Known about the structure:
Layout: E1 21-25, E2 32-41, E3 65-76
Antiparallel strand pairs: 1-2, 2-3
Amino acid sequence: MGSTAAHHDEWDSNWETIVKGLIKTDLVTGKKYKLLLDDIPMATWSGPQFPNATTLNSTEFDDIYEHCGRDGCLFELESDPTEHVDLA
């Protein structure tokens, strides 16, 4: 697996690769779960009008974070692919 440490991430100025999430498949049900930890930058749902590929200014999203903390945010991806329902 490659590292993004050598590339500049405009939403993270410390130039480090930090993993804040995990996707795991439940071996019994086959469902995929996504666990996010800490503060997740640019956590917003896009719409058909805004924001989308025509949005010119990404700085509008600099202060948008999902605050999952140490307990985390948990999503079941099959029934909730847009990650609106936090099961944690």
